[in-house]
């Protein structure tokens, strides 16, 4: 359903100069790593991610049988650089936050990729977080989608993601929605990450770790889905530009 914007203070600016419904700058490239089957580089504001895809390949690390039921196994590895955040620190191998992120990505692409076309095989998605400033799950999902497209692995549709938040934890009718939160906003405000398939309203990923009123959650979902559609348009442009470059390179 469309969002009624008549009650929101549209003139107010956020700390980074954006209005409530503005995306941060998104920059992306495809085929950035020649040695990988598929690769992509993506920036959402100051969050920067490199993604590589290997496979489908027969087995991995002695597993051999791939996924269950004659389907490919999806594996995700996330590496967070020590210099990615404000504080320089090395993440432990079993870091809970990284494990949760890997699990979410694995579940998302297991249900999105046409894994039945590659029985007894493994598809490995590796993500390197170079800079972290909010919307980490959304950025990794978008980068992985581009890398999978580059690898030529069929999927039911594009999976794109975006975040949306609310201006206050308190039960207040004056709380306004915010689109595409940065790191500082995520530390202070409740927010939700939404991933949709295609250009419709089908939600494939929904992650929220904050408590918020149900009425405000509905507004946040509407804003996030609208943001996903705008991200989809941007990623479509990246894919089209890459396709044109490939054709021109072949002709040349």
UniProtKB/TrEMBL annotation:
<protein>
    <recommendedName>
        <fullName>Ribosomal RNA-processing protein 41</fullName>
    </recommendedName>
</protein>
<feature type="domain" description="Exoribonuclease phosphorolytic">
    <location>
        <begin position="22"/>
        <end position="154"/>
    </location>
</feature>
<keyword id="KW-0963">Cytoplasm</keyword>
<dbReference type="GO" id="GO:0016075">
    <property type="term" value="P:rRNA catabolic process"/>
</dbReference>
<dbReference type="InterPro" id="IPR015847">
    <property type="entry name" value="ExoRNase_PH_dom2"/>
</dbReference>
<dbReference type="InterPro" id="IPR020568">
    <property type="entry name" value="Ribosomal_Su5_D2-typ_SF"/>
</dbReference>
<dbReference type="InterPro" id="IPR027408">
    <property type="entry name" value="PNPase/RNase_PH_dom_sf"/>
</dbReference>
<dbReference type="InterPro" id="IPR050080">
    <property type="entry name" value="RNase_PH"/>
</dbReference>
<keyword id="KW-0689">Ribosomal protein</keyword>
<dbReference type="Pfam" id="PF01138">
    <property type="entry name" value="RNase_PH"/>
</dbReference>
<dbReference type="GO" id="GO:0003723">
    <property type="term" value="F:RNA binding"/>
</dbReference>
<dbReference type="Pfam" id="PF03725">
    <property type="entry name" value="RNase_PH_C"/>
</dbReference>
<feature type="domain" description="Exoribonuclease phosphorolytic">
    <location>
        <begin position="174"/>
        <end position="226"/>
    </location>
</feature>
<comment type="similarity">
    <text>Belongs to the RNase PH family.</text>
</comment>
<dbReference type="GO" id="GO:0071051">
    <property type="term" value="P:poly(A)-dependent snoRNA 3'-end processing"/>
</dbReference>
<dbReference type="GO" id="GO:0000177">
    <property type="term" value="C:cytoplasmic exosome (RNase complex)"/>
</dbReference>
<keyword id="KW-0271">Exosome</keyword>
<dbReference type="InterPro" id="IPR036345">
    <property type="entry name" value="ExoRNase_PH_dom2_sf"/>
</dbReference>
<dbReference type="GO" id="GO:0005730">
    <property type="term" value="C:nucleolus"/>
</dbReference>
<comment type="subunit">
    <text>Component of the RNA exosome complex. Specifically part of the catalytically inactive RNA exosome core complex (Exo-9) which may associate with the catalytic subunits RRP6 and DIS3 in cytoplasmic- and nuclear-specific RNA exosome complex forms. Exo-9 is formed by a hexameric base ring of RNase PH domain-containing subunits and a cap ring consisting of CSL4, RRP4 and RRP40.</text>
</comment>
<dbReference type="GO" id="GO:0005840">
    <property type="term" value="C:ribosome"/>
</dbReference>
<keyword id="KW-0687">Ribonucleoprotein</keyword>
<dbReference type="GO" id="GO:0071028">
    <property type="term" value="P:nuclear mRNA surveillance"/>
</dbReference>
<dbReference type="GO" id="GO:0000176">
    <property type="term" value="C:nuclear exosome (RNase complex)"/>
</dbReference>
<dbReference type="InterPro" id="IPR001247">
    <property type="entry name" value="ExoRNase_PH_dom1"/>
</dbReference>
<dbReference type="GO" id="GO:0034475">
    <property type="term" value="P:U4 snRNA 3'-end processing"/>
</dbReference>
């Amino acid at each position: 359903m469309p969002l009624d914007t008549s009650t929101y203070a549209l003139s107010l600016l956020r700390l980074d100069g954006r209005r409530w419904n503005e995306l941060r700058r998104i920059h992306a490239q495809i085929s950035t790593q020649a040695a990988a089957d598929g690769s992509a580089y993506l920036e959402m504001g100051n969050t920067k991610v490199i993604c590589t895809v290997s496979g489908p390949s027969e087995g991995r690390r002695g597993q051999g049988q791939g996924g269950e039921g004659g389907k490919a196994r999806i594996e995700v590895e996330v590496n967070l650089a020590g210099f990615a955040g404000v504080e320089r620190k090395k993440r432990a191998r079993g870091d809970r936050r990284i494990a949760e992120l890997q699990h979410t990505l694995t579940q998302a692409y297991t249900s999105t990729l046409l894994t039945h076309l590659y029985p007894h095989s493994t598809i490995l998605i590796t993500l390197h977080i170079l800079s972290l400033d909010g919307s980490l799950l959304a950025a990794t999902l978008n980068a992985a989608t581009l890398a999978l497209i580059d690898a030529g692995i069929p999927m039911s549709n594009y999976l794109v993601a975006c975040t949306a938040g609310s201006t206050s934890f308190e039960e207040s009718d004056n709380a306004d929605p915010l689109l595409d939160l940065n790191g500082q906003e995520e530390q202070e405000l409740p927010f939700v990450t939404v991933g949709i398939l295609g250009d419709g309203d089908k939600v494939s990923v929904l992650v929220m770790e904050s408590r918020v009123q149900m009425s405000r959650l509905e507004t946040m979902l509407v804003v996030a889905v609208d943001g996903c559609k705008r991200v989809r348009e941007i990623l479509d442009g990246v894919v089209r530009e890459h396709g044109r470059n490939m054709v021109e390179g072949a002709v040349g």
